Each structure stands twice: as structure tokens, then as C-alpha cells.
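Marked as duplicate of an earlier ticket. Keeping the data here for the record.
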Amino acid sequence: MSTVERQHELEQNALAEWIVQLLDAIRPYIATIIAGVVAIVAGLVAWGVISSTNAATQARSWEAYLGALATGETIAFNEVVQRYPGSDAALWSQLVLADMALTDGAALAFDDRATSTERLESAADLYTAVLAEGPNGLLAERARFGLAKAQESLGQLDEAQAGYASVARDFPESPLAAVAMEHADGLASESTKGWYDWFFAQNLTPVAPPSTGATGDDATGEDATGADDPAAALFDDGPLGAAAGEQASEPAAAAAESTEATANASQEEAESAAEPAGTP
């Protein structure tokens, strides 16, 4: 036997001896080791099943979201939020609901202050709930910008200015960045703050509809042409209201004089026609 073969045999014997020693050492723990291996395998299988289930759930949530977009109904977006809480589709549904509330609140700002405030606060809460989930990218950008708009519409100017500035700072490549910075700069202006102070000092309430069958004046004897409209009343006490009143009164007076002159002429013609012929 050559030296190389002898050395190889010795190495094999050493390896075999080491394996025997190892088996002797782990023999008391063999049941525990087997149980651990089984647990690991079971965990891998469960993870695969859960991943597959999550993927299917995500797919269904996006299908529901797209269906809600197709209908545009509030109840459909609420259903996505309730059925798939925490999912991306649910967060986007909340964003859409917030946008709807913001649009409603802004539209009512000049007509019904109480309802407008209620809808704007609902929008702010929904935007805040979306941001609390820590979204990234477009969803975070849209939610921040929407929250700033809701705060501005509620008169929370400092918070709104900070929100707009954060959009411009954190999303500089976004098309909304320039718009957000413009809003932030505008809210820093004293004239803008003064306008908001004046606006929120007004008491805007819904206009009661005129009584049925009224032709000019309503049941209270007030002009039914909109003179009592709160939005129009904002200008009644200022120079603009006074000038408008004077300009409106001049044509009305001229029309009254013309009507009176026509009536007098018609009366004279009637009296002349009623006299007998030849009467001096």
C-alpha cells in the first residue's frame, strides 16, 4: 500500500470516528431535533399558503376598488374599507372618500357654513387616517395635499401652510410641488390671512325656499328675488352694496315715470274720444 493510499484510509477512519462521536452526542436530543425540523417544514408550508391567500385577497380588494371607481358611489368605497382593512385598496378608497367630502365642503362654503364645516372635518379625518398608515409615493403625496386643502378651507391656515410646504419639500419632482409651494406662499401673505378672517366672520346659513304660489314677495312679505341671500348680503353694508343699490334704483325710477306718463296719455285720449263731436 502506497503512502498516499495509507493516508487516505486514515482520513476516512478519522471521519467515521467523528461521525460516530457526533451521533452519540446528539442521540439524547434526536427527538427534539426531528420535531424542530418538522416545525420548520410546516412553517414554510404555512407561509406559502398564507402568501397565496394574501395575494388572492389583494387581487379581490383591487377588483372591488375598481368596481367602486366605476360606480362612483360612496357606499362602494366604504365597503372596500370595511372588507379589506389595511390593504392598499382600502387606503385608496379612503382617499377617494376624503376627496368627495372635501369637494362637498368647499362647494357649501358660501351657502351653508355648518354643513360645510362638517364635511371638511370629515375629509380631514379621512386624510389623517390614510397618513397614519405610513403610505409612500403618490398616496402619501395626495393625502398630504388633500389634508392641507381641508385645513385651509377650515381656516386652519398655519397647519395648511405647513402641509403644503411639506408636499413641495418631500415630493419636488411631483406636478403638485409647484402648486403646493404657491399655496404655501399665498397663505404667508397678510392680505390672504385678512381675507380669511373676514370670510369666517360671516354667518352663512341656508336660504329658505319661497312659499308655493308666490309671485313676487314670499309669505313674509320679503322680496323673493334673492335679496335675503346670505352670500349677497355679505356686500350689503359696503361701498359695493351701496353703489349697486343706487344704480339699481335709477332704472327702476325711470321705468316708473315712463309707465305713469303712458297711463296719463292713454287717459287723455280716452276722455277726448268720449266728448261729443263739435264740443268746443
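See parent ticket for discussion. The chain has eleven helices and no strands.
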